[in-house]
What does this fold into?
Amino acid sequence: MITYRKISAAGAGKLIVAYLRENQSEPEKDARFERERSDPTRDTGDRLTTYYTGRDGRGMWSPDMGPRIADALGIDVMKVPTDQALANLFEAKRADTGEKWANTGRKREHSAIDFTASPDKSVTLAAEFASTAAERALIWSAIHKANDKAMAFIAKEVGVARRGSGKTATLERGEVAWVSFRHYTARPVMKIQDGAKGPTAAVEVPVPGDPQAHIHNLLLNAVATESGHLGSLDSARITSATSFMFGAYFQAELASELRKLGIAVHVDESGRAIAIDSVPREACELFSKRHSQAEKMGKAYAKRQGLDWNDLSAERKFSILHNANLAYRSKKYNGSNDREFWLEQAHDIGWYHDTVLTNEKVQPLGRAERYELAYAIAAKKLAEEFRTAAVLDRDTFRTHAARGLIAAGIEGTQDVERIADLIQERGIEIDGQQVRFLEREQDGRLRVATSAQIALEKDMARLAGLSSRTRDGALSDEQIAAAVARSGLDFTREPAHGAAQLAAINALGQAGGLGFLIGVAGSGKTTLLKPLVDAWQEDGRTVIGAAIAWRQADALKDAGISQTYAMTPLLDGLAQGKIVLDRQSVLVLDEVSQVSPRQLLEILQLQQEKGFALRVVGDREQAQAIEAGDAVELLLRVMPKEARPELLSTIRQKSARGRQIASMFRSPGRDLSQTEDEQKKADIARAREAIDMKRKDGTIRLVGGDHDQVVEQIADLYLRRRDMLTQAGSERGITMSAPTNEDVMDLSRAVRDRLRKRGEIGQAEIVKAAIDQRGVTYELPLAVGDRVRLFSKTSVRVETAHGRRWRDLGSNGDFTTVKGWSDEGLVLQNAKGREGLVPWTRLADPKTGRVRLGFGHAMTVDAAQGVTSDEHINAMPRGSSAMTGFTSYVAESRHVHRCWTAVSEGSLREAETFSRALGDIRPVTVNDLYDRLASDMGRHPYKSLAVDLAKARLAHEEANTRWIRQNHVNERNRQKGQSPGGQVRRHIEEAPIRDVPRAQWDDVSRKLRKAGYAAQDALNAARRVEDLQERRRAQQAEDRLQQARAAAQAEERERDRTRVRGTGRGM
It folds into this structure.
């Protein structure tokens, strides 16, 4: 891979030189011309590699540096890079005189960009454990050659000077220069806290590191053009997408070089790197864990000395780490004898490496064969990306082209361009369909969407717009009012919110074919559905609930929906006829933000065919779909406002301030009037304001220490708050979420250890080999009282009056309590008290046989969606980089009374430091850490839409006229006391009768004509009687009216006489 980091021009150049040279002295001789060599039988390490390769690891100018750039920067390519020359360059000064770079216009903030190229771990180990120094040099030579070609490719991509700005800017190509440094190891970096309450910093530990070959290439931020201008690199071309592309090209060139040496290689499982066959993966894994090994040794050493690691100062911890590793295997580590340690570790796992060099030469494929193989690989990988993204950068074509060439073989950058062109020309196959591409510039980047995705989004929008403007599923006002009255729900306790809920109930109930309820976290969406489900059922309709996952679908049972399904089983069941939806059905789809346009289109197509009513519920600001596109955004664009009510207030948090803080982590949604950057800034500013409010309330804390210390402190917080809530009689208790499954596992282990010491979990335990849904394996201890997480829909065997029966226990993401075990299985109890035995065979993973259970004292943020507790802990033991605005809003809105936010200070500091240019001398302050936290918790990476790239007009405008006309008809029906939905349903139900051929009606009419005439006569007679009675009733009413008028007139005359007599007496 190739990563990049900017170099600050304001930093101390000498410190950057010391870092890159690993505190070694500058070379005295130029390895290109005058190779420095002692006795090769006795000399080892970097000096022999330098001797054999002619490349000095302490610094090498870029090969074939052009004269224009060398003159502009004062570089003498015939001399080795000196410390002073490099220090000057890294401060944006001439190498020779130390003067500022000339003719550069605005001040440069960055002097260079460090592109670091790293091969797979197996390549590193093959070099470090090579049988001879010459073999090591051969492998390093291959790495260097691939690196040089990759840097030439990068230079071509970004070596363009931009003159002017905006639309008047011009681009001019020029020469660039870089300097390379060869490194062999990755030094362990640990988070060290200064005492129990001091600050935490990430520091390199002076112990043997992991072997990791890499080359730092500092591409100087200068472009010397033919016109004499010295501009800056086109840094806009340096993105995560182009970084992947550069790394893929490096791997393709490295694969080619290794094959030339006769080394047997293969593409790794990710398809992104070349690996060496004869180096075992267990060795690669062993030499990727030095960080944790060093940490464990240091803590064990402190414990033996009777010291409390948490209370030690940073200086003392640093000293102990050094001493602990000096004592490691009784060897003396002097900073340069890493290989002695590596060799012993390899032998410990039984790996005695010989050589990777063979006499077998791989016959390269012909050009046509290479192109076909590379295209096939690239097309497949690209199809996988388009399944989760509707729009991609055009550079992704070149990235996958380069990855295809890792396996196929490469002869230069022209191969990458040719494969990318083939993809553009031929298209790719997605789900058996050949698709073409639309290419257009968007936000300053060349972006691509598939024809299939554009068509899919347009179809989904068209059907959604059409369905939301029909009246098929509408309830009458009376039906809704009656159901609300039967529900017994109190909408007056929170008057404003209650009124909003009633309005939403009416809008969703009166919606036609499609209605969409948008509700924020804690707004009572499930409660709101109860009277509607009752009304639909009273109307004779079958109500079915569904969601992406079983757990979310099963939550709809609280709304009175007994029949619920996860999305995949629902669609499969409908296709197989096992699930029936018809005109008398209502499908309620929850958490619709997790449903992709493809999935929603499939449901809308079924609706067109079957005629059922569809109600979707959710909040896009809590989650995004895994698949490509944004179904909610399309719904918002095509559905009339009357059919998509919103509940933007919440009743979950008891205090107004708690509600305010939670709501500030929620984005108001896409704002097309703002640029992406403007909206991003507004979202981050809002998150920072919420963080500041939490700081004032004391509900957010930066947790100091290394990872283990952070986890332990969060576990202590969890148990402390849990105990207080229990004593206060809390029913909902406390919950805890974390960004990743790994975090959840660490936190759950820490909580479990403490509970076991307190005797809250049984002392007797069994340990089972377990696996999670990602395929990660671990040992899972089980004791009575343990909480475990389910990873699939699970049933338990229960004893009933009718014998043994199987009943639902829970679904993926649900938590259960261990009540016991036997040879047959595990006894589990869910939150509702259902208890029974689950056989080990039912818990076993089909492939590995391991049990599919996880630790259950914490949950991922995704699993926390829909959870309500009195208090919640939003735990981030590895920092906030895995968080988004969506997950932050979920995590910060689970609580009724209080949400605690606990984040690793060291991880935040490390992320903030790395985000800055190397050499940036500004101190990292606490405010900087909270800014970093806000930038993660406030970012909302909405999924792109292919129709936006295509600038396609969605076909809903034509339906507006139909919608307005239908509203007119509905209002007329209400005036007549009729149900608008009932009329449409009757019309639909009568359609089969209207479709009967006339000939069949002739047969029927012969049999029914006589009875029909008789019925008609009886009906006419009844109507005559009814008319006579109606005339009598009218006459009687008229008589009563005349009598009332006469009485009123007589009364008025009497009042007049009384007034006249009174006037006379007064005179």
Q: What stands out?
A: The longest strand covers residues 210-220. The chain has a mean pLDDT of 84.
